[in-house]
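Try this one yourself first.
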């Protein structure tokens, strides 16, 4: 019996080696095929319901806001003003209602998940997966079957990220004891007003039309999700549906300006540009990043040392890839701004955004980058963005030597 077991293990080991050898050889011959097969097997897909197909929807989902409230009670969020917006009446309402629950087990578990890296996988998983649930009248989570996740992927990730499904009891207990549903219902009119402000401030359809005229990527659904408690930390991702025929992109952003009534046309346009940039620079990651993926070698040559372009001390942009994509997404917003805003305001709009990313966010050579990108765009007759990659990389090579 022992000899048979040893023989079985030996054959199993040889079988695994053979599979790895076949996969490795196939990757050398056709890496794109292997990457596609792996993505199709292990990467999640999304079920796009009719309420989102061919639409741009701005929303404050109930369970999403529940998780943002619980996260905002953590010590990690309270000590990071990029994660938590504390300068609003909504924040005061939140503190008055939920402060006594800051030692609830859910809050403590979230804080433990955030302590090492509040901008990492736990944060992204909570934002994304909270969309998969509704909350019924008994404060119990209802699974909407929004995402299709390979069991192997789910099992692997469960060791590293906070899954709402694995913490349902804690989430439901927090919702019940804090009377979250009453708070959410009380502020529903406030959420609606903010959603209306976003629609007035941002021409979402115009953004989509412009981006799809400048890139080959197409997305059949935009979901723009926000919480009034979110401040500067924004994120985005996109998923395909099960048969890969449609794509949905998710933007997690901060709330728009509360009061836009009675503004002069000039002030309104400035306010519009600020809110638009917040959303646009998340939306266009879904267009820029796939193009950058095609030019990784050229990027490696052009940005020999990303620290010459990125003055941040830590954070989420510690690579050439992430640094360049941030340069490009903000640069593309300025190209969009050139064709969107009035001659009277365009210089101040571009200057404000350029100063912000250069001086505040420490992408230290963005001023020069943006100036060259605009020059190329105009001199080349406003081409598709992909056509700007080769010349901007040539320019960056020269700049890197300075």
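Now uncover the answer:
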């Amino acid at each position: 019996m022992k000899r048979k077991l040893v023989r079985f293990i030996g054959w199993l080991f040889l079988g695994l080696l053979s599979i790895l050898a076949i996969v490795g050889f196939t990757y050398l011959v056709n890496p794109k095929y292997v990457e596609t097969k792996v993505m199709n097997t292990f990467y999640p897909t999304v079920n796009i319901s009719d309420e989102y197909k061919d639409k741009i929807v701005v929303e404050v989902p109930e369970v999403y806001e529940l998780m943002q409230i619980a996260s905002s009670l953590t010590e990690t969020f309270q000590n990071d003003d990029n994660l938590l917006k504390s300068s609003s009446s909504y924040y005061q309402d939140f503190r008055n209602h939920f402060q006594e629950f800051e030692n609830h087990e859910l809050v403590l578990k979230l804080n433990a998940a955030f302590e090492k890296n509040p901008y990492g996988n736990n944060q992204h998983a909570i934002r994304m997966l909270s969309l998969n649930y509704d909350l019924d009248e008994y404060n119990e989570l209802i699974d909407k079957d929004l995402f299709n996740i390979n069991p192997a992927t789910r099992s692997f990730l469960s060791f590293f990220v906070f899954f709402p499904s694995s913490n349902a009891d804690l989430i439901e207990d927090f919702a019940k004891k804090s009377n979250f549903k009453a708070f959410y219902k009380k502020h529903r009119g406030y959420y609606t007003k903010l959603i209306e402000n976003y629609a007035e401030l941002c021409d979402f359809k115009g953004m989509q039309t412009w981006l799809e005229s400048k890139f080959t990527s197409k997305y059949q659904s935009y979901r723009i999700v926000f919480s009034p408690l979110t401040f500067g930390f924004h994120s985005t991702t996109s998923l395909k549906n099960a048969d890969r025929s449609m794509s949905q992109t998710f933007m997690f952003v901060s709330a728009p300006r509360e009061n836009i009534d009675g503004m002069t046309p000039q002030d309104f346009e400035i306010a519009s540009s600020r809110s638009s940039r917040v959303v646009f620079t998340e939306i266009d990651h879904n267009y820029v990043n796939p193009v950058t993926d095609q030019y990784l070698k050229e990027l490696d040559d052009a940005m020999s040392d990303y620290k010459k372009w990125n003055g941040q001390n830590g954070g989420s942009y510690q690579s050439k890839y992430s640094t360049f994509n941030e340069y490009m997404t903000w640069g593309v917003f300025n190209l969009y701004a050139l064709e969107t805003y009035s001659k009277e305001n365009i210089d101040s709009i571009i200057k404000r955004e350029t100063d912000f990313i250069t001086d505040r966010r420490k992408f230290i050579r963005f001023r020069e980058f943006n100036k060259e990108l605009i020059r190329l765009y105009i001199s080349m007759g406003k081409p598709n963005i992909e056509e700007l990659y080769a010349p901007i990389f040539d320019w960056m090579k020269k700049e890197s030597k300075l």
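Discussion: Residues 25-39 have pLDDT under 50 and may be disordered. The first strand starts at residue 45 and ends at 46.
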